[in-house]
Amino acid sequence: MAFPLFSLIVGILISPCLDPAAVWICLPLAILISFAKRWCALIAIALLGAGVTSIQPTVPPEPDNTATRVTGKLTKAPEWRGLGSYLDLELQSIDTRPCRGRARLTEFLDDVEQRTLFDALNLGSGDRVEIVVKLHRPGVYRDPGVFDYRRHLERQGIYWTGTIRNPRLITVLERGWHGPDRTRDWIQARLEAPFKERPEIAGLVLGMVLGRKFRLTAEIERKFQAGGLYYLVVVAGFHLAIVAGAALWLTRLVPWKRNTRLLFVLGCALAYASIVDGQTPVYRATLAVLFMAIGKMLDRGYAVLNATAGAAFILLLMDPASLEDSSFQMTFAAVLAVTAVGVPASEWTLGWLREGLKDFDDPSKDGNLSIPASDWRVSRRVWCERHLLPSWVLTIPWRLALVTGEALVMSLCVEMIFAVFMVESFHRLSPVSPLVNVPAGIITAMVTPLALLLIFLPGPAAGLTGWVITQLLDLLLKVLDLALRLPYATLRAPSPPIWVWVMYAMAAAILIAAVRSRRTCVCVGSMTAVLTIQGLIAFKDFSAKPPQVVTMTFLDVGQGDAALIEFPSGYRMLVDGGGVSSGRFLDLRDESGFSIGESVLSPYFFSRGLRRLDAVVLTHAHHDHMDGLFNVIENFKVGEFWLGRNPMTPRYRELIERIQQKQIPIRWVTAGQTIGPFTVLHPPAAWIPRKNDQNNDSVVLLLKAGAATALLTGDIERGIPVPEKVDVLKVPHHGSKGVKVRPKAAVRVISVGENNPFGHPHESALPALRTDRLGAITVTLESRPKVTLTQRCRSCTMWLRLGSH
Fold it and tell me: For 634, what's the count of Cα atoms within 13 Å in the CB-facing half-sphere?
């Protein structure tokens, strides 16, 4: 299946360059020619991939920005996410007009009365409902390097999002069958019951066993990400393999025929896949188990690589867009790492021990073994006889050592391949991950079947099993805490240049070849090269050369502010950092698990290769300017922090404490100060902030770059002395109506959130360049300011510069 899979991938990749009509015309011809020339079948498969890709559903046009009356069926029961519930709706009509596609609606239930009204609706899968809601395209942050959440939803057929303002706007037209919902709720309740006094353990169990991550505490989620263990709370192939393996072990206790055993294993795998929230990763693993079971029942061999390629072929044929999904790539990369590298490496280093432990008490088989394995068996049996001990006293510790050693070898091989995905997708390297993965994998392999037993066990037995699970997960958390305390346990790594990955690929390829051919010297040399390149990625500065002129990039952080200023000297300054509250206005993610600093600012800076910011400025202590800075000071080295005059609110106090913990110097700025090319215009030295933070607390900076000037205003609303004319103006307070600072400017930029509830920007602030429509806006301060826009190409995942103005 390797060559057909490769041909299909080629067809998918070249599809945007081909005419769909020509593809479908040539496909039958290629199939006919393949009967005479078999290699032409690969061309036919490539054309099939291109053709299937071309018929992917088109994205509907942007809906009207008004409240609409939509009808449709719920695809599943509402899911509680932090502050509210998510409703996935298969649309049937919008304002009585027929419509196809799905919508993800959010009902924020931060009020007890609203929560009661919503619960009384008793919504479930299959319910046909009518909802009054304002639909819009899924929110997205249009900055290079930032995850395209809109594209992610569109691949699932979700083209609209919206916020339901009140449960009274939902009308149930027709009830569906809630049987599957009740089953899932009952299973969840059974799993949670033994952990009522330990909610953090309950959340961890639900994540590890059912893939429901919404109950994870923020601290545990952060630790699992830092330790490279986040895959354990995202149900995928590893968990399905555990279930299939446990089912196969159980069949050995029952005198069933082979086909009956295989059907039992397949049934367990399918049943588990039906109750978890793993989605696509679970489908991939289920296909692999299906291939194995059917192959065995048909007396055919089972080649892991061939089955993996077959599963990938089927999935790509069904959904070609999944090729760009990092989880799809990582799933199959992990299988290749295990089968192509891990298994040969394990056989080379530990094969003699596995051979020696097999049928240890049968001396008649010693002559058929290798010399090292045979000598080891004889010497260990003699030792047992001399000390009058049963053989299991010796073999059990060695079997545990074998399992641990094989797990470590597999983990190292997978981490070698995963380093590429971890750096490019998550900008993280976890040197402790291979070590932590060994106990974590073993504990997960024990917890998963034990937790599934809770579904069927009666009260006392469930309590005992829950106690065992609690002890195992406490041990896992302690091991993870201990590992993360080690120096350089987890590192944030910017994206390196492409030539670094080329060198890494060459070193990894040589290592794989050395392992498979068992050449010790070459293996040691190539392994040293792999580790050296990983060290370069972790610590070397690969940031781009400084610009030739002062450059300002106003980032799209939703309803907030963030601007990166770069100087020819290499000095880089960040002014404000957006905030968590922006995500709520975009319906992007629930507020409990989304951070502008971690999910927007950091990916953008990492994609630029940045490790350091020479200065960070907080204009004032509002959340939409401040919250993203918490992650910035965690992920990057900061030279100094500029602060104005702000009331000591709890969140502002927390930021100052974090700055002091990081030993970052604080510069208190007031009007009249000149700091390099910056002149501080506000607040005055005598400014006394009110009890609560205000827009008028904002630090206002005037930047002079040669003959060009730029005015950075924060959210200032009151009138203050400013130049009558500047070249670049960051419009105050997201373009609201009441601002009084409005000098003439050649370039006006408004940082504003898409679909924000405040009606920003006001028409009086226009015309201006808007981050909610244009994404990241780059302005170069030359004799005549130049604006450059960067947008994501819709036919691929590349970012394109659209030109300068």
Answer: 18
Where b means 16+ CB within 10 Å and e means fewer, 169-197 reads: ebeeeeebebebbeebeebbebbbebbee
Structure tokens at 273: 């896949």
Q: Are 196 and 189 in contact (CB under 8 A)?
A: no
Query: Hunting for tokens 């105050």 — which residue is that?
Result: 732
Q: Which residues contact 502 (CB under 8 A, 6 or more apart)?
A: none
Q: With contact defined as beta carbons under 8 Å apart, do 664 and 638 qualify?
A: yes
Strand order in the sheet with 708-712: 674-675, 678-682, 700-705, 708-712, 725-730, 744-750, 769-770
pLDDT band of residue 582 (cuts 50, 70, 90) is very low
For 771-797, the pLDDT digits (tens) are 988 889 999 988 777 777 765 544 444
Pair type for strands 67-74 and 128-134: antiparallel
Q: State residue 577's pLDDT score.
A: 93
**Which pair of tokens denotes residue 168?**
């009274």
Specify whether the CB–CB gap between 83 and 105 falls below 8 A: no
Rounded to 5 degrees, what are φ and ψ at 134?
-95, 115
Tens-digit pLDDT profile for residues 226-244: 888 887 877 777 788 888 8
Kindly state the helix (H) or strand (E) to which residue 477 belongs, with its residue range.
helix 459-484
Quote the CA–CA distance of 244 and 285 in Å, as a whole number: 10
Q: pTM for the complete prediction?
A: 0.85
- DSSP state string for 681-740: EES-TT----SS--GGG--EEEEEETTEEEEE-TT--S-----SEEEEEE-GGGG-TT--
Structure tokens at 538: 């972790």
**Pair 526, 507: CB distance under 8 Å:** yes
Q: What is the pLDDT of residues 369-385, one digit of tens each?
A: 888 888 888 888 888 88
Kindly state the average pLDDT of the residues 744-749.
91
For residue 709, what are its two tokens?
């000037």
3-state secondary structure 72-112: EEECCCCEEECCEEEEEEEEEEECCEECCCEEEEEEECCCH
